[in-house]
Amino acid sequence: MATEIAQLIAGGVARIQRVADDPRHEAEILLGAALGRPRSYLIANPEQRILDCEATDRYEAHLTRRAQGEPIAYILGEKEFWSLPLTVDPAVLIPRPETELVVERALVHLPEHGGGRVLDLAAGSGAIALAIASERRQACVIGTDVSPAAVDLARVNAARLGIGNADFRAGSWFEPVRGQVFDLIASNPPYIAEDDPRVERAVRRFEPHDALFSGPTGLEALRAIVADAPRHLLPGGWLVLEHGDGQAGSVRSLLAAAGFESIVTHLDLAGRERCTEGRRPGSASAR
Which of 70, 107, 182, 261 has the fewest beta carbons under 10 Å from its own? Predict the structure, then answer.
């Protein structure tokens, strides 16, 4: 039996309201995906009757998964980052808007029309690496991740987006680029402490544990990166790190102890300390 768009959305809202911050918005996204229509069409045509039973079945399946807490990005298999539509699945962390700050800071340190070598550690879906590569087409961008499944997905995203100056390699931290040096290293590593009570239940349940949690303090991955980064940076090269909103002081101390200069922490759009950068001593002319 045909059902109006407005009725389908109302039914969806009722099913997901306990897990969604904005259930109407999410129901519209899920219905639009099932119908192959944009949200604007649904909003403009609330009385349109849907005769496509396969589409309504897809919508019901989407709602069932969302009602169980599964993130919409995994249900739809896609998440936008830096205006790039990235394929995502449970093998990778869902890219967050605050991580775009890492891209912004990296681009400040890379010449707009020059080359340069960039390394993205814990690349996941390839979000940071592909965003930088899309903005600096003459740069060579390498992403590494300990998860082969994540590397495979990042390669899929690069091919899908037609970004040919980004390469992804499997291995722990700097192992896949042993002996190589870069103009800039960026990373959104795991930085959450294992027992952090602020982590949402759905995040713990659905997103990859190793991409979120670093150890008892949450600083373990950040400490490892800072310790090895100097030997992989050219003189004057930059290290740009995302971290937790309470970790900025510790990260600045780690960078200072490792000999970095020009250490600065930047705030995300919510006003939280989210990204800290430092420069390896030396002049670019020494390259």
Answer: 261
